[in-house]
Structures are given as structure tokens and as C-alpha cells.
Model the fold of this input.
Amino acid sequence: MDNNLPSPLPNNPLSSNPPAPIYAGFVIRTAALFLDSLFVSMPITLVGFLIFGLNSNILVGFLPATLFSFLLSRYGATPGKMIFHLKVVSKEGSNPTFLMALLREIVGKFLSSIVFSLGYLWVIFDHEKQSWHDKLAKTHVVSTQPLTGFKKFLMYF
Done:
């Protein structure tokens, strides 16, 4: 038996117990959503209205959600989440499928916002910090690394 093997630490790949996920809370998720709205949703919606006109507001509303669904299925994060080192994961720990992300972004977020945005606020009270759209799509938003410096300031700003 070799006594030079490292002891099983939480971040050690030889350990049988992976570290517990760090669920992202309400403030950081709201900051990421704000950045996504400001730099992605609003410009896409504006361009969509300029191209398709005001009569196609349903189509224009689906453009950002479809883009976010693609990004979640491909990278596990939207631009706002990437900035704050957040990732949306399925219950297996992988990126959600495109259909799962589409369910989360369109149906789930509609349900989360329809009753005074209670579905978004649910993150504050839920023990796994899931919103209604997370529960519907069976996803979690996790932190991939701690925030420091300017990003921490930006989150609270």
C-alpha cells in the first residue's frame, strides 16, 4: 500500500464525494438577468421591432428567449451569467438540453413573472434556491467560482 497518495479532499478527483454545488442566490441572479436584459434582450427586441414592426410582438418576444435557450444548452450560461460565473445545470449536472432550456426560458419565465414575479422571488425562500422556472425545467443555477473585486461590486450595484 502506497502511503504517498493524497488524502481524499472535497476537490480531489480521487475522492468519492464530489463537492456540494453552490447554488446562486437572488441578488447575483438578478444582476445577471439585468445585464442580459440590458445588453441582449433590449437590443434584439429593438432590432426585431424595426425589422418586423409592432404587429409581430410575439415573434420578437421569442427571439431573445430562443437565443438564451441556445446559449444555455451550448454553454450552460447566458452572457450575464457568464460574467458572474454562474451556470445553469440539469439535475444530472450537465447543460440543459435545448428543449429543456426553451421550456425554462419561455413557459417557465412566463409563469415566474405572471403573479407579481413571485416565481423569481421564490429563490429567496427555496432551500436549493430554485425559481419556478428552474423547478419546471428541473435545473439549478450554480456558482462556478467566487466573485471578487469589480464583479462583486457590480453585482450589488
Observations:
- The chain is about 55% helix and 5% strand.
- The longest strand covers residues 86-90.
- Residues 1-10 have pLDDT under 50 and may be disordered.
- The beta strands are 86-90, 139-143.
